[in-house]
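Let's do one together. I've listed all components of the complex below, 664 residues spread over two lines.
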Amino acid sequence: MTAKIRIATTWLDGCSGCHMSLLDLDEKLIELAERLDLVYSPLVDAKEFPADVDATLVEGAVGNEDDKHKIFLIRERSRLVIAFGDCAITANVPGMRNQFGVKQVMERVYCENAKGGEPPASGDAPALLNHVRPVHEYIHVDVFLPGCPPPPESIYAVATELLAGRTPDLTGKIRFGA
Amino acid sequence: MGQRIVIEPVTRVEGHGKITIQLDENGNVVDACFHVTQLRGFEKFCEGRPYSEMPSLVERICGICPISHSIASAKACDEILGVRIPETGDKLRRLVNCGEFIQSHALSFFYLSAPDLALGFDAPPEKRNLIGLLEANPSMASDGIRLRSIGQQVIEACAGKRIHPSWVVPGGVNEPLRKEQRERLLCLIPDGYRIVHRTLAWLKEQFHRFNEEIRTFANFPSLFMGLVNKEGNLEHVNGALRIVDAKGRFVADGVDGASYRSLIGERSESYSYLKSPYYLPLGYPDGMYRVGPAARLNVCNGCGTTMADQEWAEFIRLDRGPVMSSFHNHLARLIEILYSLETMEKLLGEDDILDTRVRSYAKPNFSEGVGIVEAPRGVLIHHYRVDEQGLMQWANMIVATGNNNLAMNKGVLQVAKRFVQGDRIPEAALNRIEGVIRAFDPCLSCSTHAIGGAGLRIELVNSAGEVLDERIYQRGCRTQRVSANV
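Okay, and this is what the predicted structure of the assembly comes out as:
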């Protein structure tokens, strides 16, 4: 019996919608669960990103110091990195804050719209980067899987290619937005 | 010297967070915090966008409850337009909302919490997930997948797309429901009933295994807030705010969305991107209140649908007044799935549900609007101001998870005090601390609409407040490393 392929998923600056679209594979999840190991994901209890991952799906853009740290670690430990959805690929909606800058955003949220407290400043709330940027601006990305969110059919196509030991080629099968 | 335990990321929750636990020199828990570690800034970056774009834009706050955000947003926009939406438009908003409650509650119950409930909080970490559940209890896992799928199919049948559809719009909805979709949805309902009834029976049989969790999972007096309809019954889309105290007495009732600022203050804390709303008249932090499934069942007079009412009558007997333990959110979620299936069946049976008049049109007539709904996780408020062209000038959003922030922090402390003793910290104790967070089912994607978010971490600090160990522990070796530091 061949070893199962090792898959990881993570979400950075996004909405979880791409992961929900993954769950929209519904009953096909059962079939996939038999054929791959989910070694790191918000859906399982691993706390540290493991070594020797065959493919990692990255949802979301790089928006804070933690995301930045994590994306380099993911690259180092994954054979294939898949930019999963429009936020990972273009920064999309999270990138809309780029035109205002961190200071203005923080002032609106924590000063104007809340009274009496302090804005988040401790190490427990990782500092926001001045610009939210797509994943490929930090690391090499092997596969781009667009959509807001990517439809389950495209996710399934990627999964079956990975299971067949191939690097997914999505030419002609994908579209942005919608 | 005490130490600081960090759990990061908190897993099997939606979004980014961490938990920190502070111990004194004797290894006793003195404090614990729940940190949300992401912020995106929707309240700021929607500035300058046309109001009509808002329902679609704010769906991207959260991939789990985009429908809630789109309805709250559309309701705020309805006020800006100053229109009354067609009755069928309102019914279709309610219908799509039923789909969302079914899928979101099924996600929380089966995908995120059932591994703890079915396999036990002490089960090996590598088994505590949906795949482990598929191996150990395949019929329950399949039920969960099926029930979530039913909810998603409701959304798809109405709106054409499961996640981030552009269907709920200012003035109503975009397109009427098609006849064949009505028939298709009616066929899904019996299966939904079967799954929720057998899961309810199963959960109630498990309570004796979780006495300590029920006793400590945020089991303390607080206020509870939720929407109720004119009869005082459970209400997810329209209705007015009611707040009850720990004895079940009405503190506020019949408060409409526009007056939310007379009830709710917001405060920020340096340790988290998630703000802490509180009941204004009692001040901060005494004005702690809870929202969500159990809170809704605590504030209402009943559900108003036959089967859910039977379950509700049993639910409220779990405690002498309002049900205090947040553990019972799990039960409340299943009851609300039942309520949503019954409501959906009723709506689909109504003659005018296929009516083609589903949207009212107008230009902006007012500069301000507030939309308030019950999201699966609790009260959700969108408040907008626009200029004369209808371009967004300002927004404030209070998300369900934020409402629970003070109570989640207190709940984390309660569980930590019960299960953590500094010199020996079993992995299962840390899982229980995450478990109380899961009972609230926080949506940290939503909660980070303001800034960013993505994982939960727990820390231990000494009695002087010094962070002695901020390392992020891998589950497998966390206990060992913590012990070495004591």
